[in-house]
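Help! Submission page says 'invalid entity' but I think these are all valid:
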Amino acid sequence: MLKIKEYVKAESLEQAYELNQKKSNCILGGMLWLKMSDRTVQKAIDLSGLGLDTIEETEDSFSIGCMVTLRQLELHPRLNEWTNGAIRDCVKDIVGVQFRNLATIGGSIFGRFGFSDVLTCFLALDTYVELYQSGVIPLEQFVGIKRDRDILVRIIVKKTPVKCVYMTHRNAKTDFPVLACAAALSGQTDNCRGYVVAGARPGRAIRIEIGTEEVMRLRKGAYTKEDLRSLAAGLAKDIPMDSNMRASAEYRSHLAEVLLFRCLSTLQERGGEV
Amino acid sequence: MKVKIVLNGKTREDEINSDQLLIDYVRSHGCYSVKRGCETSNCGLCTVFLDGKPILSCSLLTARADGHRVETLEGLQKEAEEFGAFVADQGAEQCGFCNPGMIMNAIALFRENPDPSEEEIKEYLAGNLCRCSGYEGQLRAIKQFLEYRRRGGESCE
């Protein structure tokens, strides 16, 4: 059971950062995962008074405060328009509306949890994290860094033109995913890149780049069903899988072929032009 | 620590422990409709409204509700009774333990989306678990209630 000795509503990020340097203290996200732990926290640091609960759209990016809830992401019209609804798709099966009204994007991304739908989806986009101490770094780099005592302040999604799609397989509707997949074509016509992302492997999500030639073919809609199947199978081979109580590594590898095929088919159907 | 919370329309000031959860706070004020069903933030039995939004009171520190408005089923009697009658008429539930959480979240759904499709109903209520029904009765009750409202509050029997 989680025990908290003292609750501190941070008055500034500086104060929160200083308090968070002590190992026995802890930043509160939505507190949903933290609540499941069996630990004693000396000072629970709440960032909810710092105005970090909004999604702001500028000319070149979406800036998402760390305390924005998953439900806010789900209902944000512009963010979902920009991502072909992938953001909504990645959170809609996470437990229920009441849960998503509490769970925060900061908690999901900072935790770099293997099961994270949110991390998987944002890795497919041109995403950066703004850390209080370390500044702005690409999400892909952040995923590989060990958890430290820094504070995730914002998630920044650059408005690089993108076509993207998100799919998962779950054993039960609101359970953790057995496998989470996203695919995206991103960038201007003359500099378009393609990615597939797999999460809940069950390890942390990883992103694999699709070859330039394959991206061109996808954009032209030149793939037959069979060709797409072998492209998906080839990409799935490069994704390391593991077993846990939900599924075996072999089953996940098979699922990856199927989900990636569906993701790539959807991208091609939507028209490859970014 | 001290908190000031508007619980079911009444402003209350209380001295609480830092790690008290909102579910224990509302129950200490007699709101026994709010219950623990799972301890893993999954079942929806403890649903309350925080500033009008449905949340899991088992997963929120009371401290975080300081300065906010909290509503439980006890504060929504009229809305709850009206819809609850349809659930009862369908014989939708056996034990009824999950009922208050489901009614709370259904009310949140009706407020947010007055004319939901079947898919939207299922999606909105996916976080409310019932171990004895299979959800068919609840779904019928919701549809009948929506039909009743479409007819301006007249029975659709």
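Support: the input was valid. A stray whitespace character was the problem, and the output above is from the cleaned input. Chain B has two domains: 2-74, 76-150.
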